[in-house]
Write a structure and sequence with these properties.
216 residues, alpha+beta, 7-stranded mixed β-sheet, 28% helix, single chain, 5 helices, 3-stranded antiparallel β-sheet
Length: 216
């Protein structure tokens, strides 16, 4: 499977894409507290795993929007995947290192959840950074600060301006009043998406967490 080329002659974003690719190459990060009060209560009342559920929610919102499924083609022009899969980190306490695993996205929560749980279990004792030999190209990154609740986060990727996929980092829950919040940092390539698009992604993700009826 290959990304679908975007017809830039008919693309409303052409001028913005070219500006942030050719003249002002930049990415930006935003850190927010996502309200996960209802989500946490629903997870505790169910038999599902928190991390796998978080990843499904993130992947679901990412896959709704073309701007977060973009990748450069060999000639430097923009393309978009029909679907992108989450590549997420899992920690190995015995070595204090992590592995990055990919699970194919499925819009059926239970199908994805069970596949993610099985994948984590399969590679639990494999401490290689990339233990899967068949990793696809159409992936975006999710990682965690599992023991830290942060209020700001910045990721500096050298020569990273060709990377159009979002990068998402999650932190430890904390209680604010009667709410449970989860810090989430989102890194975006400005050629692919503006503040409007990032805000929409974050809003839709919080809406999924606010109505966790999909946890079944």
């Amino acid at each position: 499977m290959e990304p679908r080329p975007i017809d830039v002659t008919q693309w409303p974003r052409r001028e913005h894409f070219e500006h942030y690719r050719q003249r002002v190459q930049c990415s930006y990060e935003v850190t927010v507290d996502v309200d996960v009060t209802a989500f946490v209560a629903a997870v505790r009342a169910s038999d599902v795993r928190t991390y796998a559920s978080q990843i499904w929610a993130i992947a679901t919102v990412v896959n709704r929007h073309e701007e977060f499924r973009m990748q450069l083609l060999d000639d430097g022009s923009p393309g978009v995947w029909d679907v992108v899969h989450p590549m997420f980190t899992v920690f190995h306490p015995e070595t204090e290192t992590f592995s990055a695993l990919v699970v194919p996205y499925d819009d059926d929560f239970r199908v994805f959840h069970d596949a993610a749980v099985d994948m984590i279990e399969r590679y639990r004792d494999d401490v290689r950074m990339f233990p899967q030999d068949d990793r696809p190209r159409n992936v975006f990154d999710v990682s965690t600060f599992p023991r830290t609740s942060f209020t700001g986060f910045a990721l500096h990727v050298r020569d990273g301006y060709d990377h159009l996929m979002p990068i998402i980092t999650l932190g430890r829950y904390r209680i604010v009043g009667k709410r449970t919040v989860m810090p989430l940092a989102l890194q975006v390539n400005h050629a692919a998406a503006d503040g409007f698009h990032a805000s929409r992604l974050l809003t839709e993700l919080e809406e999924l967490f606010a109505d966790p009826s999909w946890l079944r």
